[in-house]
Design goal:
The protein is an alpha+beta fold. It folds into three domains: 3-326, Alpha Horseshoe (Serine Threonine Protein Phosphatase 5, Tetratricopeptide repeat), CATH 1.25.40.10; 436-515; 526-714, Reverse transcriptase/Diguanylate cyclase domain (Alpha-Beta Plaits). It is 67% helix and 7% strand. It contains 28 helices and eight strands. The protein has helices at 41-45, 56-69, 71-80, 89-104, 109-120, 125-141, 145-162, 182-187, 190-207, 210-226, 230-246, 250-267, 270-286, 290-306, 310-326, 330-346, 350-366, 370-386, 390-407, 410-474, 476-515, 526-540, 558-565, 567-584, 608-623, 656-672, 689-697, 699-704, and strands at residues 548-555, 590-595, 598-604, 627-629, 632-634, 638-645, 677-684, 708-714. Helix 20 (410-474) packs antiparallel against helix 21 (476-515). The longest helix is centred in the middle third of the chain and has 65 residues, at 410-474. It is globular and about 90 Å long. It starts with 40 loop residues before the first helix and ends in a 7-residue tail after the last strand.
């Protein structure tokens, strides 16, 4: 599995130690995201815990860290703690929560349940939040982020209601806005809040909604600043640096990474130092700096052993197996998996185990052990499906598809290709809905603020009117003037309300437009396409079937563009292809960002000959000249599948969903025939629905048997980058 799904979080202490970041099935060791507005280094580095070294809270934190690898020893220590009569309710909650956490992160559900029940029995939202987070941790360890997410959300809601002082800033809030307050942080159960944000990051990353993951990552970092915890601050800074690097913001990431390194060295904690080196290794891997990856990994592994942390060692080995799989070194990948897997199973961490099983399956296919590899990967996909992890499943299928293609199993790769496309569509829909929800929330906040301002002005006006009535009793002349002024104020207020309402109407209209546009390319998105299809269906009737031409356009080897030139370059290529598509089509044709690097062209009522000409024109317009990225030419070609419906000779009426499915099969044929070409369905021997189903079940064989007639046209010779 690639670095996109790196293993997850180890809990760091709130004082000097902290629970280290543990692996999860999503491979999200470094998940923090969002915009960066760091403090000066001096200010951030002074976040030193103010509690006395012998305080109850610090004792709890130290044992929590021990519990990550040696839970039985940690539990003995926690049971030996006598909080005394002077302990606060927050400290007593912290003690019970720590016992639940140690057991939960070890996967010991029954034993953890005793302490979870004890927390629930306390009439305090901080205790109940701790219970929910412990249950969420159990679900995460079991690989069920779908069950963990609502528990973590509920825990945060409880803590926000109980602790108004707890940071709740939106992504992009400045660090300077977070005022360190150790005492308030402990009283508000910052441990539970921080752990909840980590779980939520993993969930939203797995669902393919980076904006929501970024919001939780930002909150987690601010909680680390608020609680004056240098260890968590180091982890959070490394996390944020990694997220920025994934967005190709290397310059913004460097200060954060330097800060994390500084804090790790200052702590003297080998586990923390290993974590930061692992972050540096991931960044080096992102930059395809293989030498630095090996060097940093070689430095990190001894540090993990020095810290006596086999789980951290397993995380490092899992990362290395990711690297080896991507670099096509299956033997090395399998060796790393075999070293890490017993550790994951010993600690009952299904998250790490799933990642390792995935990498083992890919490695086995690479070694020619295809049946074994398929068995491993099928189990991983089943478990990810049960957890509702759409984006993760899509990533797994993409890697599985590539492995089968390399092994020559084209039929198996075709099935995976279609399943991956369906999952990508779900992911894009979820991401779009999340973005729309954020926009609506922003509009709601602005509307509420305007309402508050209007209410304040209205109250001010009423006060003036009361004062004026008093004045009227004494001085009629002055009252007349005041009344006139009041009328003018009312008129002004009325005009402002009308203007505000107009702004709100315009904002809603803008929202509707934005919901039907792809934000990167400004093309139509699936939502707009569906609206057009439903309108066409309403006009012609469902029984009439779809009439017109469809073109599915896929950028060839787009992943190579991202890997070789960076994701920013990939965005430039996507925008340029979108522009050239608009230039190639007719004025009344609809160009849609269908998903990732794939586009759809809808040409209604177009003759079959013109559909063929359109496909060849698109091939030429896109492929005849390179795309210029940062002054460098990047060769770009596309593969096209197209068809004009209804298909001759039987002109069987088809729904638009069936039409897209057939066009997609033509696209896959173009890709399997070497890419940089168009494949059009000229005719299909399908007089009735059953015959069409047979064609859809095995399109390639139908082509070979002559039941489908294809028109294949090559694209222009690719220009070297």
């Amino acid at each position: 599995m690639t670095a996109k799904h790196e293993p997850g979080v180890r809990r760091h202490t709130l004082a000097r130690a902290g629970r280290a970041l543990a692996a999860s099935m999503l491979g999200l060791v470094l998940l923090a995201a969002g915009p960066v507005a760091t403090r000066a280094n001096e200010a951030a580095d002074t976040a030193v815990a103010a509690a006395d070294a012998d305080s109850l809270q610090v004792q709890i934190d130290r044992l929590l860290r021990l519990g990550y690898d040696r839970p039985d020893e940690a539990l003995v220590g926690l049971r030996a703690i006598d909080p005394g009569d002077t302990a606060s309710r927050a400290e007593r909650i912290a003690l019970r929560q720590a016992q639940a956490a140690v057991l939960a992160q070890s996967g010991r559900a029954d034993e953890a349940g005793v302490f979870i029940d004890a927390l629930n029995a306390i009439d305090d939202p901080r205790a109940q939040a701790g219970a929910k987070v412990a249950r969420a941790q159990l679900a995460r360890i079991a690989g069920r982020l779908d069950l963990a997410e609502p528990l973590a959300q509920s825990a945060l809601a409880l803590l926000r209601a109980a602790c108004p002082a707890m940071p709740d800033a939106e992504p992009g809030a400045a660090d300077a806005a977070v005022k360190p307050d150790l005492r308030a942080a402990y009283e508000c159960n910052v441990r539970a809040a921080w752990d909840a944000t980590q779980i939520l990051q993993r969930y939203w990353h797995a669902k393919g909604v980076p904006a929501n993951a970024a919001a939780q990552a930002q909150l987690g970092r601010e909680l680390a600043l608020w609680s004056q915890d240098n260890d968590r601050l180091a982890i959070s800074s490394a996390e944020l640096a990694w997220r920025l690097v994934r967005s190709d913001k290397f310059d913004a990431a460097q200060p954060l990474l330097h800060q994390a390194q500084r804090l790790a060295v200052r702590s003297g904690d080998p586990a923390l130092q290993a974590r930061v080196k692992m972050a540096q290794a991931r960044i080096a891997h992102r930059r395809e700096d293989a030498e630095s990856v090996r060097r940093l990994a070689d430095e990190a592994l001894p540090l993990a052993r020095q810290a006596h942390s086999p789980r951290l060692e397993a995380e490092l080995l899992t990362f290395l197996s990711d690297v080896y799989v991507k670099q096509r070194h299956p033997t090395a990948a399998l060796r790393a998996v075999e070293r890490a897997l017993p550790i994951a199973r010993r600690h009952k961490d299904m998250g790490i185990e799933l990642v390792l099983m995935n990498n083992a399956g890919l490695a086995k296919i690479g070694l020619g052990r295809i049946a074994e590899g398929k068995q491993d990967l099928a189990r991983v996909e089943r478990l990810a499906s049960e957890a509702g992890l759409t984006a993760l499943r899509a990533e797994l299928l993409r890697e599985y598809d590539a492995a089968l293609t390399a092994a020559g199993d084209l039929r198996g790769a075709l099935d995976l290709y279609h399943r991956e496309r369906a999952l990508n569509a779900e992911t894009m829909s979820l991401a779009r809905d999340a973005a729309l929800k954020q926009l609506r929330q922003r509009n709601d906040r602005e509307r509420k603020q305007r309402d508050i301002d209007l209410l304040a002005r209205d109250n001010e006006l009423k006060s003036v009117e009361i004062a004026n009535r008093d004045l009227m009793l004494r001085i009629w002349a002055v009252a007349g003037v005041v009344l006139a002024l009041s009328a003018a104020t009312v008129a002004l207020l009325y005009r402002r309300v009308r203007a505000t309402n107009r702004e709100l109407v315009a904002s809603e209209a803008q929202l509707r437009v934005q919901s039907e546009r792809d934000p990167l390319t400004n093309l139509a998105n699936r939502r707009q396409f569906l609206s057009v299809m439903h309108a066409e269906q309403a006009r012609g009737g469902a029984e009439a079937g779809f009439e017109g031409a469809l073109l599915l356009v896929d950028i060839d080897h787009f992943k190579h563009v991202n890997d070789g030139h960076g994701h920013a370059a990939g965005d430039v290529v996507l925008c340029e292809v979108a522009k050239r598509l608009n230039e190639a089509v007719r004025g009344d044709d609809l160009v849609v960002r269908w998903g990732g690097e794939e586009f759809l062209v809808l040409a209604l009522k177009v003759p079959a000959a013109q559909a063929e000409q359109l496909a060849e024109r698109v091939l030429k317009v896109i492929g005849e000249r390179p795309v210029i990225v940062d002054g460098r030419p990047v060769a770009v070609t596309v593969s096209i599948g197209y068809a004009r419906f209804p298909l001759p000779p039987h002109v069987l009426p088809l729904g638009w969903e069936q039409a897209i499915n057939l066009t997609d099969m033509a696209l896959y044929t173009a890709k399997s025939q070497g890419r940089n070409k168009s494949v059009g369905i000229v005719a299909a021997d399908a007089p009735a629905e059953p015959a069409l189903k047979h064609i859809e079940a095995d399109f390639e064989r139908a082509w070979q048997d002559g039941r489908v007639t294809l028109k294949i046209a090559p694209g222009p010779l690719a220009i070297a980058a």
